[in-house]
Design goal:
Chain lengths: ~600, ~200
């Protein structure tokens, strides 16, 4: 590297900076936060790339194996916030074996040693050991403002106590849905309560962690800034003191109610006290007898999570009609078409709606009316024009309903539909034209999931998906298409598609490989259920530099049935994974 | 424009219909082949089995018997075929297998075993969906996956609703639901059940 070359580079940098002085460029960059804009800026010239690199505060690494911590530090040495994701999304559906990988160790070691400005760390679907946490705490305790261990596993409560004791600046501790071993009860909450006074968010919702009302109340008393508290199961009658203390609390989720056979059957929840600032609520195991707990506060509610309750269709109607200000509603499909009609009439400000799949396997337990069809979908499309996120599990659906979504739900940027398999017949097949109308209308869509059954979306429909999904970056398709031609049609379009997940489709390995080559923006492909060749050799057609191809066969005890085999392919600057368990075979690079 | 769309719709329907028709056609052909073979092979078997004992049996009854006996007869015939195949069992010959990039040579391989091996290879071939466009991962093979969080909730919910006293160990616990006493890994859905 001679000085001449450096001088030349400077010259080039100045020319391409269009005469903007460095100070000005730095100031302008300070206002550019969108990572897509940042990416574009960094491609202008080396100088701009360097300015971006030094001023970038947050990076999300969507696939932890796509780069190395060393490389990330070389490019962005001043990062303040890092989000890392490892296991495929399918892990949330128990489709990825526990030994798949995704250890946080190499990352935590590097970022503890370097990344001198790191304040926020978010790990999602990763394995985090107690050692990792102690390394992190030793290096970053004085800095850490936010620690999110989001659907992670591998650590235990003593590590939480260590974090609580050491990280005095911690404002956010997020552990939702993590698998945490409980080695010393809820001491960690007491540590947090006695060592921290700046905590704003504590979330251990959907974990099996124990939490005593005494420690929680102590925490709320000492952390006066606490706005969000999402806990595991804890009886509501024991939390009255907590709510009287928590005068600034805005969000609460968790809790629990007595089982029907316990003595306090006749407990009255009508006059339960919630602080006036509370606008977001989710109560575990709430039943018909307890739902009155919501009524005095329902008009002020902006968010309501009823996914983990015992309510029937009728109860949902009663509650929702009292909540005209809801912006977020999360329920199971037990809400039924009737419940959704009430949502459509009442919740004019609704922005996010999630309708999860209820108990349809064991029969008898779930409310019979709890089914969703084109009726409910049409009602919501017409009644809730502000929707930006809409995920729904339906039992039936028609072209007209999908067209209604395309016509009325113009603000959607994320739409996900799953057609359940409990009804033998659905009203209309195929739904190609409905999907076309939906995609044509919802031009802001960035994410799109369509999980149906064979015959619902034909090859023609897949062609429409390719043609009318200009801005879609993430797509999940299940049981779609009739032949290889379908995926090939799709891959001719979808110019922005970065992440594609396919399940239960009949595409051959060769067609999948061709599609991967043809999709210009694709960086991540996950497939389960496809026409596997005996050796997997046809996948090699998509071999290209930096494109890691891994074959996953979860059953190690015997031969893996075809429908369990998975393909994961992604761009990586890190080369081949070095920590593959026996169930993961790297096809490329082979060495 | 509208007309074009309608046409397209019609075309789609036609495409859907034709696909169904193709499937039906294949199924019919398959049934005919199976049925045809069965009938042909059945005729002598039925004659041997029924005619000597029941001279007076009417045609219709006979046909009924044929229908009822069909699967059984087919089974015995298959056995017979297999028995026939096994007759030259004493023969031995060298055998070479190429599989998965490896070659294996046996000097004295019994013909009977070779036959079994061929059947095995043939059956796995037929099962491999590689060449068959109709072989699709079926809905029963690939049920819609349920979110882990909901799955755990529904299990707990079921326990609460069905069992009268699902958490016997919790009797002496004051306020904490017994499920948590397990201390079991978070993922074990049946934590409540494994308590006892």
């Amino acid at each position: 590297m001679g000085g001449e070359a450096e001088a030349g580079e400077r010259q080039l940098g100045r020319v391409l900076s269009f005469g903007i002085p460095d100070t000005a460029l730095g100031l302008v960059m300070g206002y550019v936060e969108d990572p897509w804009d940042r990416d574009a800026i960094s491609l202008v010239c080396r100088h701009w790339c360097r300015v971006d690199a030094l001023s970038r505060k947050h990076v999300t690494v969507a696939m932890a194996y796509s780069t190395t911590p060393e490389r990330l530090f070389r490019r962005f040495p001043c990062l303040e916030s890092l989000k890392l994701k490892a296991k495929p999304r399918a892990a949330m559906f128990n489709l990825i074996s526990d030994d798949w990988g995704g250890s946080a160790s190499p990352w935590i070691r590097q970022l503890s040693a370097t990344f001198h400005f790191l304040k926020k760390l978010h790990l999602r679907r990763m394995i985090v050991s107690d050692d990792d946490i102690s390394v992190l705490v030793r290096a970053k305790a004085h800095m850490l403002v936010s620690l999110k261990l989001d659907r992670c596993s591998g650590f235990s409560t003593p590590s939480l106590a260590l974090v609580a004791r050491s990280c005095k600046k911690l404002e956010t501790l997020f552990l939702e849905e993590s698998a945490i071993a409980e080695n010393e009860n809820d001491e960690w909450i007491r540590e947090l309560a006695t060592n921290n006074s700046v905590l704003e968010t504590l979330n251990f919702y959907l974990t099996d962690l124990r939490a005593s009302p005494e420690y929680l109340t102590l925490l709320v008393r000492n952390c006066q800034r606490l706005k969000t508290l999402k806990i595991s199961e804890c009886l509501m009658p024991d939390l009255t003191g907590l709510f009287r203390t928590a005068q600034t609390l805005q969000e609460f989720a968790g809790g629990s109610f007595e089982e029907p056979d316990q003595q306090a059957v006749n407990r009255n929840y009508e006059s339960y006290y919630f602080p006036p600032s509370l606008h977001r609520l989710g109560l575990l195991y709430m039943g018909t007898k307890e739902m009155q707990i919501l009524f005095p506060y329902s008009a002020a509610l902006k968010k309501l999570d009823l996914q983990f309750t015992f309510l029937n269709t009728e109860d949902h109607c009663h509650i929702v009609q009292r909540c005209p200000n809801l912006e977020t509603l999360e329920v199971r499909d037990v809400i039924g078409d009737r419940g959704l009609q009430v949502v459509a009439q009442t919740c004019k400000k609704l922005q996010r709606l999630r309708v999860e799949r209820g108990d349809d396997e064991h029969g008898g337990l779930e409310d019979e009316q709890g089914r969703i069809s084109q009726v409910g979908v049409m009602a919501v499309a017409q009644g809730c024009p502000e929707l930006t996120y809409w995920a729904i599990h339906v039992s039936d659906i028609t072209n007209a309903a999908l067209e209604a979504v395309g016509t009325f739900s113009r603000n959607l940027n994320d739409f996900r539909l799953v057609l359940l398999d409990r009804e033998a017949h659905i009203t209309e097949l195929p739904l190609d034209n409905g999907v076309r109308a939906l995609l044509r209308g919802c031009t802001k869509l960035r994410r799109f999931a369509f999980y149906v059954r064979p015959g619902v979306l034909t090859d023609v429909g897949l062609g429409y998906v390719g043609e009318f999904s200009k801005n879609i970056r993430y797509m999940l398709l299940g049981n779609v298409g009739e032949s290889d031609n379908g995926i090939l049609q799709l891959s001719r379009g979808c110019p922005s598609l970065q992440k594609l997940e396919l399940r239960g489709c009949l595409f051959s390995e060769h067609a999948l490989a061709m599609a991967a080559l043809q999709l210009k923006s694709l960086r991540y492909l996950w497939v389960q259920g496809y026409r596997a060749s005996p050796t997997g050799a046809d996948l090699m057609a998509m071999v290209r530099p930096f494109w890691n191809i891994e074959f996953i066969a979860p059953n190690q005890d015997g031969p893996c049935p075809d429908f369990k085999k998975q393909i994961l392919a992604y761009y990586s600057l890190a080369g081949r994974r070095t920590d593959c368990p026996p169930s993961v075979t790297p096809l490329y690079p082979a060495f | 424009m509208a007309a074009a769309e309608q046409q397209q719709q019609a075309a789609n329907k036609a495409a859907g219909g034709s696909r169904f028709a193709v499937t039906c056609g294949l199924l019919r052909q398959y049934m005919k082949e199976q049925g045809g073979n069965g009938a042909l092979r059945l005729a002598p078997a039925v004659a041997m089995g029924l005619v000597p004992g029941a001279d007076a049996a009417e045609g219709t009854e006979e046909r009924k018997a044929v229908l009822e006996l069909f699967p059984q007869q087919a089974g015995t015939l298959k056995d017979e075929q297999q028995r026939k195949r096994k007759e030259p069992a004493d023969e031995r010959a060298p055998l070479t297998i190429f599989y998965g990039g490896k070659m294996v040579v046996f000097d004295d391989f019994p013909a009977e075993k070779a036959e079994e091996l061929m059947q095995l290879a043939g059956s796995s071939n037929a099962a491999a969906p590689g060449q068959n466009a109709l072989a699709q991962p079926s809905l029963t093979d690939m049920p819609i996956a349920r979110k882990a969080s909901l799955k755990r909730f529904l299990e707990k919910r079921k326990n609460r609703l069905t069992a009268g006293d699902p958490y016997p160990a919790a009797a002496n616990e004051s306020s904490k639901p017994a499920v948590k006493d397990e201390g079991a890994p978070w993922l074990s859905v049946n934590s409540a059940l494994s308590l006892s």
